[in-house]
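queue> holo job accepted (iron/sulfur cluster)
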Amino acid sequence: MALMTGEEYIESIRKINMEIYMFGEKVENPVDNPILRPSLNSVRMTYDLAQDPEHQDLMTVISPFTGNRINRFMHIHQSTEDLKNKVKMQRLCGQKTAACFQRCVGMDAFNAEYSTTYEIDKKYGTNYHDNLKKFMIYCQENDLTVDGAMTDPKGDRSKAPHAQEDPDLYLRVVERRPDGIVVRGAKAHQTGICNSHEVIVMPTISMGPDDKDYAVSFAVPLDTEGLFMIIGRQSCDTRKLEGSSMDVGNSEFGGVEALVIFDDVFVPNDRIFLNGETEYAGMLVERFAGFHRQSYGGCKVGVGDVLIGAAAVAAEYNGAQKASHIKDKLIEMMHLNETLYCCGIACSSEGHATESGSYIIDLLLANVCKQNVTRFPYEIARLAEDIAGGLMVTAPSEKDLRDPKLGKYVEKYLKGVDCVSTENRLRILRLIENLTLGTAAVGYRTESMHGAGSPQAQRIMIQRQGNLEYKKQLAKAIAHIEE
Ligand code: SF4
Ligand code: FE
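queue> job finished
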């Protein structure tokens, strides 16, 4: 099958009978729901851009498995060039949506699974790599969106999965049958889950021998019986119900997360990629997290480009663009943003082949990338708010602007430079509000902190990968210390 158009993608999601809840009610038509639709549009962009000849080289690639052209979001990286192109593609998608476009999680899950299942099979003679490949080719050929679900609720953080008071706080196998397994548990903060055709589930931490039932990885379609989603709230989410695209700031695109419940879900044998090989849980987590930490050196940079642009426009609309401190703040924002991009490109350029032949990023540099992402977008957002001024959080609504009595006062008193309408000034401020405090702040701010693992998770990896002993030897050699 050829690549889907954006419209075909939307209609393919419409056909999936997903069980989605929001505000305590079942969402009967998620595709046209005003709160959920912008997030669907963001994924749609990954299909639209792939159809655009200008972006074909970045957005698509020839599958080494089928020889067919596929969307790069479905690709298993074959070189460091592929790894770099992934980051460039993510920056492009961030620029076009100013939101989380969600499709990276599945790409990162496929790539982590591809190399890990190869190594598990080599050790245990299992069939996981073949299962994974068969599933991957099915997804490539049908141009599907696949989510990756890693984060368990985790309960008491001081206890291992098997030691929790409630045994379901990490997703686990509750029944083993000849034809497959039954799993129970939940995955939290699932970006893009309601816009996906399939989901790959992975464990969330390294595991010990007692955690056998928890070391499980598999894929199921989103309409699987027993699987349902509870949509998470976002700051200003109900503004999307008010019918003012202007007040929303970014009315077309967004991202949505959900708590996903697996209430005794059956998984057939050929969809299982890990089942009890506890020592490989850590490898899978580390590789997935590494890939997703690389991803942030692309997507957050693309969204950052939009925010920097918005701050510059806001300054122009105020007549402040020539002030030296404004210029300097914009330079600082660009410096920080490009530093993140450098990290994304660097961990890709320094990537290497895995035993399976697929390519993986340099883990140390990918973790440094994400550690910087836990900080720089906050500073970029702070500077954008500084340049925007207080009006971004005190401006009246579009209804006031359009009101026959009030409109002329809003128009008159909130005007900046003469040649720019008050409406345009308010529009750019609403975009900055959306990115820093509104629905998109989930993707640009808090996700920069916690997405792909909280800052401490990267610091542990930096400690492990940083080779401090070697650095000590270097210092002793220079200082002529003999011990
Ligand atoms: Fe992709 Fe970024 Fe969203 Fe993760 S946060 S799914 S990398 S856009
Ligand atoms: Fe993310």
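queue> Residues 191, 447, 451-452 surround fe (iii) ion (ligand 2) (CB under 6 Å).
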